[in-house]
Design brief:
There is one protein chain. The protein is mainly beta. It has two helices and eleven strands. The protein has one domain (about 15-175). A hairpin with a 2-residue loop joins strand 8 (about 130-140) and strand 9 (about 140-145).
Length: about 180
């Protein structure tokens, strides 16, 4: 029988690549899309406090110059491919621990909202040209973006809050 430390190391060595999950796998929603509901993660990660101005910047456009735009990030900021904020339906309260999935090319790329409801996909998460489906879930709620997410184009399109924020043309992302 393996000791816990040896077992933990073995699991790490044989784990699949982080961030790429086949769409038809997993305990929740892994049945070919018949049940896309994913259980809320508890406890969620703490809300990230930004160096510039402090706070979580929930609801703000973060994929832009001097923030999280690839090739033009702020000081010590990682580059994001997509990012935004998820709220509890009918409120401006964060939906912490919800799963946001980009489904493209037979793969699902998940991100989990933090305590502030913010999520992000690191730059380069989904490679190449693609048209994807976006699903946000925290059982029993599931929301699918009605339009396809398409790669390329204006970096503003990577700001989910740009379309779904206060100045956007779409309602906030909510569950």
């Amino acid at each position: 029988m393996l000791s816990r430390p040896v077992l933990a190391i073995a699991m790490c060595l044989f784990a699949c690549s982080v961030g790429e999950v086949p769409i038809n796998s997993g305990p929740d929603g892994g049945n070919g899309g018949n049940n896309p509901c994913i259980t809320r993660v508890a406890p969620p990660a703490p809300g990230h406090t930004h160096l510039a101005g402090g706070g979580t910047n929930a609801g703000l456009n973060c994929v832009n110059s001097a923030c999280h735009l690839a090739g033009s990030t702020g000081a010590n900021a990682p580059a994001y491919q997509y990012a935004g904020t998820v709220y509890i339906a009918g409120t401006r309260n964060p939906s912490a621990g919800a799963t946001v999935q980009i489904k493209a090319g037979g793969m699902a790329y998940p991100a989990i909202t933090d305590e502030a409801g913010n999520f992000s996909f690191p730059a380069g998460t989904v490679k190449g040209t693609f048209s994807a489906t976006v699903v946000v879930s925290a059982c029993p709620a599931v929301m699918t973006m009605p339009d396809a997410l398409v790669s390329g184009g204006d970096p503003v399109e990577a700001n989910c809050n740009g379309c779904h924020g206060a100045a956007g043309s779409k309602p906030p992302i909510s569950l």
